[in-house]
Amino acid sequence: NAGVMQNPRHLVRRRGQEARLRCSPMKGHSHVYWYRQLPEEGLKFMVYLQKENIIDESGMPKERFSAEFPKEGPSILRIQQVVRGDSAAYFCASSLFNQPQHFGDGTRLSIL
Amino acid sequence: GQQVMQIPQYQHVQEGEDFTTYCNSSTTLSNIQWYKQRPGGHPVFLIQLVKSGEVKKQKRLTFQFGEAKKNSSLHITATQTTDVGTYFCAGMDAGKSTFGDGTTLTVKP
Questions:
Q1: Residue A10 DSSP class
Q2: Chain A neighbours among B 5-34 (CB < 8 Å)?
Q3: What DSSP string describes A52-67?
Q4: Spatial distance between the Cα atoms of B84 and B72, rounded to a whole number of angstroms
Q5: DSSP class of residue B66?
């Protein structure tokens, strides 16, 4: 009974590199959400996806950030040309429609 | 767009004291969910409230959903050190969840 799987748990990148964060939802869940969390702060919504569709990306920065949830495989959050301010914990959650979200352990992204 | 406000931001209590966090939405919600995040951990779902005026209990935790389905509260009776963490509410409307900023509880033994 695997829960939401995120990898890697920790990711270190130098400024200007690309970061790819992966999320495999719980079995049977077709709704995926990405959140960013800075230390001592709340969860900031980034994007909500269903299989092959972006439903709501109102929380995504307009540049450098993109997300996908392909028909096969995990959801990917991609950050291009990372900057120091991208350092944060990125959480993925999955759910059935209108039901509670189940969170992964998160990816802690550090930018050198 | 929908906004969910949560107060207080921080609460420090002595072990054994009670604790309450409040959640208010700018719009009427279809349901509200509560989550707990321990330090260094990820949010974990606690409960979902759906009906107007609903009250649910989990041991020392009492959850309420307002009559207008725009506010909610979480009350912990006689806090213990294991209660430390950040409690988030999440208001659900038309399939989208909006999280409050959370209330961080610290408990002094």
A1: E
A2: 30-31, 33
A3: TEEEE-TTS-SSSEEE
A4: 20
A5: -
**Mode of pairing for the β-strands spanning A107-111 and A10-13:** parallel
- pLDDT tens digit sequence for A56-110: 999 999 999 999 999 989 999 999 999 999 999 999 999 998 889 999 999 999 9
What are the tokens at A17?
A: 């590199």
Query: Is A43 within 8 Å of B98 when comparing Cβ atoms?
Result: no
pLDDT tens digits, one per residue of B42-96: 999 999 999 999 999 999 999 999 999 999 999 999 999 999 999 999 998 877 7
**Strand stretches in chain B, DSSP E:** 4-7, 10-14, 19-25, 31-37, 44-49, 55-58, 61-65, 71-76, 85-93, 96-99, 103-108
Whether A91 and B96 lie within 8 Å, measured CB to CB: no
Q: Is B48 on the interface with A (CB under 8 A)?
A: yes
Q: Show the tokens assigned to B51.
A: 């009906």
